[in-house]
Write a structure and sequence with these properties.
Two copies of one chain form a homodimer. Chain A has three domains: about 5-85, Winged helix-like DNA-binding domain superfamily/Winged helix DNA-binding domain (Arc Repressor Mutant, subunit A, Orthogonal Bundle), CATH 1.10.10; about 85-195 and about 365-385, Nucleotidyltransferase, domain 5; about 205-360, 2-Layer Sandwich (Nucleotidyltransferase, domain 5), CATH 3.30.420. In chain A, about 45% of the residues lie in helices and about 20% in strands. Chain A has 14 helices and twelve strands. The first copy, chain A, has helices at about 5-25, 30-40, 45-55, 120-140, 165-180, 190-200, 265-275, 280-290, 295-320, 335-345, 350-355, 365-380, 380-385, 395-400; strands at about 60-65, 75-80, 85-90, 95-105, 110-115, 145-155, 185-190, 210-215, 220-225, 225-230, 320-325, 355-360. In chain A, the strands form three sheets. In chain A, strands 5-4-3-6-7 form a five-stranded mixed β-sheet, with helices on both faces. In chain A, a hairpin with a 3-residue loop joins strand 3 (about 85-90) and strand 4. In chain A, helix 6 (about 190-200) crosses helix 12 and helix 9 crosses helix 10. At the A-B interface, helix 1, strand 9, helix 9 and helix 11 of A face helix 1, strand 9, helix 9 and helix 11 of B.
Chain lengths: ~400, ~400
């Protein structure tokens, strides 16, 4: 048999296998029918490809019980072999480092969180992350199987014109790349939390998701078609700086009356104090809401209504299937989320009114670290070219001929 | 040589050829270097694939002069053979039918526009379109080479819950499919105008585009990653119904103070008359603006500022590289567009301020018909499986062996 044709057959098979592996990387466990629908491969070809991958240990069959993704799956699903690779996600937030490790079957196999002063230098933060990873490695993770590290950071990431910020990121990436010898992918941690919620959290199975995070700052992210949407200059999901009150307070962005000036931790605490509420800042407001004080509930109602109005504009533009709300303000529960939903329903176009659902975020502080892992599973260059399967097809083809 | 391997070689080649053809369908003419970058195929493989396609008449080399796309291209580009297929776009607007025909090299080879009463029944509109196509066919187009028909319609299209509207679309699609025997793809005509501008108009070469159309109604569309973004329920690009004045006029959507109530043809004409401006509705306002009357210019400044504010919210969320503004209001030129830009710059987050560009639409009323063609070129099932190349690889491979 001439060498050229043999290699073409192997190449074709490899391209089919890549198609299947890419789907499993992106979606986690899938039924054979789902793989067939998404790959466009015939049932016969698919049976052949999956058998081959399973025989080489690249994929495994999983039953409902062994799947920890939380989605209702049919009894038997195919997933990447959990042992075939691992990905690490690190979220460098303002005052804490969060680390999570996931295997190729999308199972979280370890996570850790460490608080530090906001002034801790970047080299020290990276050291802290390395130490946390080493501790996790003693437990579950095997660094030899590492396919990439995803990193979440505060603030804009690429092409944003803030050269200092970009240089700082380069340093962090290089330190981690040098230490672990795998690709390092960096993105804004709020955007990554959006991706995390869509892969592991409140928005599992949704292709188009608007994620809003109301914390000390207000930001968010878009997942469109199941992937992180970045925008032309890496600037997107900036829902906190839409004007809600042209006569309102000055915002750190240079604008006036931005959503962040009425629906953030600091803004609510200040408004509560100004209205004669109990002291204690945000904690005082939380307590007042728990006690059902009208003054506190009115504040949340107003902030929720303005938040819903901003979300309505975003939803009219983007048309998501689901809105996920995270950050401290989501922890007020219905006292905040109901006014958000009411205003959202009031302000979106009528055809969307009955459809739009709002859910609180499900992953808490782990969202960004998990999203960073999703970024690795979706985009790591190590995974793009057939990572988890030993390169033995040529031999096998020869054996069969 | 065993049959199986021979067929695998042909399949591999076919998959490479499909990759190249798909790129040329989406982007029009490309240089060899661009095809290499986008396809990931090696230079040698690419040379081989393009030579093969050219020998079979599927692609042609084009020099700068023969390319009418308006983009600055290098001296020699590769494009689909203009004679290898054609696509028709039909825009069924409220009071006119617009038809355009484009060949596989993305060249517009014919177009026509016909005005009709808004009450004309749908069967008559389809007949009118057929008649216009037949007239064009006598000239340039060859119906035998037709690969699909794209159709733009007013209002929401799929999954919007307006059953009557969806049934009406089914009728239109079926009539056209029966008459021409090719796939018919339908979408909202404002969204299609957005796609049209990104392929042939003001936003050529931009991957992420926000398109806003201010006419009798106010709507728009998003092109993200070079493709039309539809949203989870087929509802997106609804920029006209974001609240800009909570105390404002009632809107046909049931809301109050939507952008459409201050920045549409009807709203501006009414405001002009109410302010004591000259009669004549919108035409009167146009004349007043041309004469530089302060009262008229102030109206445009206010409408432009509120438009810019809504756009800022959308741009903060989506992060486009370019904003394109179409519809009658764009025809006021700088008197309207400057206030839009000023408000947009004022309200977007600082990092986006220096980057965001605003351009008037370039395709006028033809935008939606051209966008409908782009939809066919991007998504027609006839094109997805290797349409424009005769199925001769098997024979050729055998000849070579």
């Amino acid at each position: 048999m001439p060498k050229q044709s043999e290699s073409a057959l192997a190449q074709l098979r490899r391209s089919h296998e890549e198609r299947v592996l890419t789907l499993l990387r992106k979606h986690g466990a899938l039924s054979r029918r789902e793989i067939g629908d998404l790959s466009g491969l015939s049932r016969t070809t698919l049976h052949d490809i999956i058998s081959g991958l399973a025989a080489r240990g690249a994929v495994v069959s999983m039953t409902q019980d062994s799947i920890s993704r939380g989605r209702g799956r049919p009894a038997e699903s195919v997933a990447l072999n959990p042992a075939a690779g691992q990905a690490i996600g690190i979220d460098f937030a303002r005052r804490h480092v969060h680390v999570a490790v996931v295997n190729m079957a999308h199972e979280v196999i370890g996570s850790a969180d460490r608080v530090h002063p906001a002034t801790l230098p970047w080299t020290k933060r990276v050291e802290l992350a390395e130490q946390m990873i080493a501790e996790l490695a003693e437990g579950a993770i095997r660094l030899g199987a590492l396919t990439g590290i995803g990193v979440g950071v505060v603030g804009p990431v690429a092409g944003s014109g803030q050269e200092g910020a970009v240089r700082r990121l380069d340093v962090v990436s290089q330190l981690l790349r040098k230490r672990f010898g795998v690709p390092v992918l960096v993105d804004n941690n709020t955007r990554l939390a959006a991706l995390g919620e869509s892969v592991w959290g409140a928005a599992i199975g949704c292709q188009d998701v608007v994620y809003l995070r109301l914390s000390h700052g207000v930001g968010g992210g878009l997942v469109l078609g199941g992937s992180l949407h970045r925008g032309a200059y890496g600037i997107s999901g900036e829902f906190g700086h839409t004007t809600v009150d042209p006569e309102g307070a000055a915002c750190r962005c240079g604008g006036r009356g931005c959503l962040e000036t009425v629906a953030s931790v600091k803004a609510l605490a200040a408004a509560h104090r100004a209205a004669g509420g109990r002291p204690g800042g945000f904690a005082g407001l939380l307590a007042a809401v728990e006690d059902g004080e009208d003054r506190a509930l009115d504040l949340l109602t107003r902030a929720g209504a303005l938040t819903g109005q901003v979300l309505a504009g975003v939803c009219n533009a983007v048309g998501p299937g689901l809105v996920v709300i995270g950050g401290e303000l989501a922890e007020f529960g219905p006292a905040f989320l109901r006014p958000v939903e009411a205003a959202l329903r009031k302000h979106v176009i009528p055809t969307a009114r009955g459809r739009l659902r709002v859910r609180p975020a499900a992953l808490g502080d782990a969202g960004a670290a998990l999203g960073a892992i999703a970024l690795v599973l979706h985009e790591s260059p190590l995974l793009a070219r057939y990572p988890s399967v030993p390169d033995t097809e040529e031999t096998e083809e020869r054996d069969n001929s």
